[in-house]
UniProtKB/TrEMBL annotation, chain A:
Organism: Shinella kummerowiae
Pfam hit, one: CcmH
Protein name: Cytochrome c-type biogenesis protein
Molecular function terms, GO-annotated: metal ion binding
Main localisation: membrane
Source taxonomy: Bacteria, Pseudomonadati, Pseudomonadota, Alphaproteobacteria, Hyphomicrobiales
Subcellular location as annotated: Membrane
Signal peptide, first to last residue: 1-20
Mode of membrane association: Single-pass membrane protein
UniProt superkingdom: Bacteria
Gene Ontology cellular-component terms listed: plasma membrane
Automatic annotation (TrEMBL), chain B:
Main location: membrane
GO CC, any one term: plasma membrane
Membrane topology classification: Multi-pass membrane protein
Family: Belongs to the CcmF/CycK/Ccl1/NrfE/CcsA family.
Positions of transmembrane segments: 6-26, 38-63, 96-117, 124-142, 175-195, 207-229, 249-266, 273-292, 312-331, 352-374, 394-413, 425-442, 448-470, 491-516, 614-638
Protein name per Swiss-Prot or TrEMBL: Heme lyase CcmF/NrfE family subunit
GO BP field: cytochrome complex assembly
Keywords: Cell inner membrane, Cell membrane, Cytochrome c-type biogenesis, Lyase, Membrane, Transmembrane, Transmembrane helix
Ranges of residues in domain Cytochrome c assembly protein: 89-295
Gene Ontology molecular functions: heme binding; heme transmembrane transporter activity; lyase activity
């Protein structure tokens, strides 16, 4: 809900909800435009709450979209565009954080957690192996069973 | 005066839940039955008091009593009645009161329908419920009081945020809270078991329906929120991996795991300790979600630092309950006797795999959500973790799970045969391949992975149907016998199949709309046309209109297919008068499971207007799948076999499950 509130505030800042890419921004070359869209969806709108510049209607997002397209038109590769944007705005701009020291735990978490869980399970099964299942009968129950069986 | 009565009732309720949390605990320690018997009475009284308090706040909204600060800030006399009522929980204070109301409602349900629970268990469960209620009651009264007055009273309110003035918001939070808070009952049962140091069959029988009910509500709540974001925010996205969404999705993942492990425990007495831990973790994730959303820590760490009262309070609740529960678990888990054994390849084994993957997924989403916060707090460095990260990690984790799901129900308990199960799934794989081929024929040019994903969806649906037909013996016994056996299958078998079919349907929707969606962004003048999804949209022009508390501009589009007009679409932009806030009201038309989505952008200087048109193939499958999952949960809840009361009582079979409604 907080996100919607923030969004609503973002709307107030602009005159009317203009959404994302406008026709005047679109590149003539469809292949280049497709690359621009893919890149845009991985770059954060710096003034928004968790929105990519591709989705955002903020002025700053528009500037960044134009910048990405400008670099692409100049023949930059996707990596070069990303590197350029990061050099200007910092790692914060990347919605897909790069693997480096600070993000090692982040990217490692799923693998480490999965392996840890799996190992714990295997160990647990090994340790439990061979033990009888369920709750054993108490002495009273054994006596009762004995009584019933002998009466038969 | 009535407002003060509501306020007073809330204070009394706090006193009641404090009694509810202390006396029964003392009673179980001293083995004093009269003290234990206080619990149900206190729980009922607490519920009635909070209900009264909530009704008073609702009344203040209905009559637009702007002398109440909360009403003034979030309501307007011209607002339609339904949004006056939904506005009660469309703000921080009111939504916390709803949280508390639902919490004490669940306590009252346990008190009412728990007559056949062992006395000590019931007293302990209600005491823990009382402790949680006390924490949230204090939180509301000390930091988020909705009953504060203004003097002099303003003549008009500031109106509710227009994005929230929607039928989706009216339903979404109550459903979500019923899910979130429903898991508190599982939590309380887990704590009660740890306090007493024993878990028996009655425990498992009781936990499973609560988990099912909470899970069904949470499923519905998340689906509702997703659909609401889809049509209200105006750019056709349905899931953003936003921290607030994650806050509800993490408990859902943990709750799904809990549901499955409770199943093993109930049927086979295995995984007892793990189920207790999961019950604790699931509700902890609900609490964490509440903290993330309510403390403002997500908006920015700095906003949290400038007004930390609420945040710190919830953080304290979080630390006390999660820390306390986990410490108790560490000390007492060893006293719980481990249950039945099983081979790795067995239905239990499959459910363990399910639990491993679901909890890893929950932990991954949690890590991704909290990582930027923690990193910034520790090093001051800001990074973003967005959809690309979640899509990749979550997708990779889900893939093996989705492939394994149809195997689960086909494996036998204790020791299964994975090859035999695989052979039985040949037909399902065949169906999946045919479906994928059909999609390639109809929609060539998509990525290979998309066809694979859609095949998985069909494989899950066909696999679930395979399970049902094998159980009924279709093809093996005479038709009428098979039919009778099919009708006679237990509700939980239908529930399982439905829930798994629902997952398959959702997968199909997600993959189809991700891979085959088309988008057109064009500047249009009246008379111009745009093509989308085989339909031709003609822009006819704009019209101005006036609503009760907003003005709007609407564009009209005629939709034709093959030159024949089939329907028309209105798409609007609204300006809400009180807050000077604009919203988009996208125009949506449904064709089968697919939708045309039209949203208006900026007006251009030369008289044109920017129009965005999306063709969203099979998008409804996403939410229909969620509804099928929920239906599966409900069907399973009404399984006759599960309505049997706690086994140690000699009394006749008594319906227990009504409690879970």
């Amino acid at each position: 809900m907080m996100r919607r509130l923030i969004l609503a505030f973002a709307f107030v800042l602009t005159a009317f909800p203009a959404l994302a890419v406008n026709p005047d921004e679109v590149l003539a070359d469809p292949a280049l435009e497709a690359r621009a869209r893919t890149l845009s969806s991985q770059l954060r709108c710096m003034v928004c709450q968790n929105q990519s510049i591709d989705d955002s209607n903020a002025e700053l997002a528009r500037d960044l979209r134009l910048l990405v397209r400008e670099r692409l038109k100049n023949g930059d590769s996707d990596e070069a565009v990303i590197a350029y944007v990061v050099s200007r705005y910092g790692e914060f701009v990347l919605l897909n954080p790069r693997l480096r020291g600070e993000t090692l735990l982040l990217w490692g978490a799923p693998i480490v957690l999965f392996l840890a869980g799996a190992t714990a399970m295997v160990l647990f099964v090994r340790r439990r192996g061979g033990k009888p299942t369920g709750t054993p009968l108490s002495e009273a129950e054994k006596a009762e069973l004995e009584r019933v069986l002998t009466r038969e | 005066m009535i407002i003060e009565l509501g306020h007073y009732a809330l204070v009394l309720a706090l006193a009641t839940v404090i009694v509810q949390s202390i006396l029964p605990l003392v009673g179980t320690i001293r083995n004093d039955r009269s003290l234990m018997a206080v619990a149900p009475a206190a729980a009922l009284a607490g519920f009635l008091l909070v209900l009264f308090s909530f009704s008073v706040l609702t009344f203040a909204y209905v009559v637009s009593d702007f002398s109440v600060a909360n009403v003034w800030e979030n309501s307007h006399s011209l607002k339609p009645m339904i949004y006056k009522i939904s506005g009660v929980w469309g703000n921080h204070e009111g939504s916390m009161l709803l949280w508390l109301l639902i919490l004490v409602f669940f306590s009252a349900l346990v008190a009412t329908f728990g007559a056949n629970l062992p006395e000590r268990l019931r007293a302990n469960v209600l005491a823990v419920q009382g402790l949680i209620s006390t924490a949230f009651g204090l939180f509301i009264l000390l930091t988020s009081n909705p009953f504060l007055r203004l003097s002099p009273a303003p003549a008009e309110g500031k109106d509710l945020n227009p994005v929230l003035q929607d039928i989706g918001l009216a339903i979404h939070p109550p459903l979500l809270y019923l899910g979130y808070v429903g898991f508190s009952v599982c939590f309380s049962f887990a704590i009660a078991a740890l306090i007493d140091g024993r878990i028996d069959a009655a425990w498992a029988r009781w936990v499973r329906p609560w988990a099912l009910a909470a899970w069904s509500f949470l499923t519905a709540g998340i689906a509702m929120g997703s659909y609401w974001a889809y049509y209200e925010l105006g750019w056709g996205g349905w899931w953003f991996w936003d921290p607030v969404e994650n806050a509800s999705f993490i408990p859902w993942l943990a709750g799904t795991a809990l549901l499955h492990s409770a199943l093993v425990m109930e049927k086979r007495e295995a995984l007892k300790i793990w189920t207790v831990l999961l019950a604790i973790l699931t509700f902890s994730m609900s609490l964490l979600g509440t903290f993330l959303v309510r403390s403002g820590v997500l908006t920015s760490v700095h906003a949290f630092a400038t007004d930390p009262t609420r945040g710190v309070f919830i953080l304290a609740i979080l630390v006390i309950f999660i820390g306390g529960a986990l410490s108790l678990f560490a000390f007492r888990a060893a006293t719980l006797k481990a249950g039945g054994l099983f081979a790795p390849i067995s239905r239990e084994g499959a459910l363990v795999l399910n639990n491993l993957i679901l909890t890893t997924a929950a932990a991954t989403v949690l890590t991704g959500t909290l990582y930027p916060l923690v990193l910034e707090a520790l090093t001051g460095e800001k990074i973003s973790v967005g959809p690309p990260f979640f899509n990749l990690t979550f997708g990779l984790l889900m893939l093996p799970l989705l492939l394994a799901v149809p195997f689960g129900p086909l494996l036998a308990w204790k020791r299964g045969d994975v090859f035999a199960a695989g052979q039985r799934l040949f037909a399902a794989v065949g169906v999946a391949l045919v479906a994928a081929a059909a999609v390639i024929y109809a929609q060539s040019g998509g990525p290979v992975l998309a066809y694979f994903g859609i095949a998985i969806g069909f494989y899950m649906i066909a696999g679930s149907i395979t399970d049902l037909s094998l159980r009924a013996g279709i093809g093996k016994v005479a038709g009428n016998v098979a039919f009778r056996r099919f009708i006679g299958l237990p509700g939980s078998a239908f529930g399982t199949a439905l829930a798994h079919i629902g997952v398959g349907v959702t997968v199909i929707g997600v993959i189809a709309v991700t891979a085959f969606e088309t988008e057109h962004v064009v500047e249009m003048k009246p008379g111009m046309q745009v093509e989308a999804g085989g339909y031709t949209l003609t822009f006819d022009g704009m019209r101005r209109g006036q609503g009760p508390n907003y003005s709007e501009e609407s564009g009209h589009f005629t939709v034709a297919r093959g030159g024949v007009t089939v329907t028309d679409i209105w798409s609007s932009k609204r300006m809400y008068t009180a807050r000077r806030m604009p919203t988009t009201e996208a125009g949506i038309r449904t064709f089968g499971f697919s939708q045309l989505y039209v949203s208006l952008g900026d007006a251009m200087a030369d008289g044109g207007i920017v129009v965005r048109v999306w063709w969203k193939p099979m998008i409804l499958c996403i939410w229909i799948g969620a509804l099928i999952m929920m239906a599966g949960g409900v069907v399973s809840l009404f399984d006759r076999r599960l309505r049997v009361g706690a086994p140690q009582k000699a009394r006749k079979v008594k319906p227990v499950l009504e409690a879970a409604e």
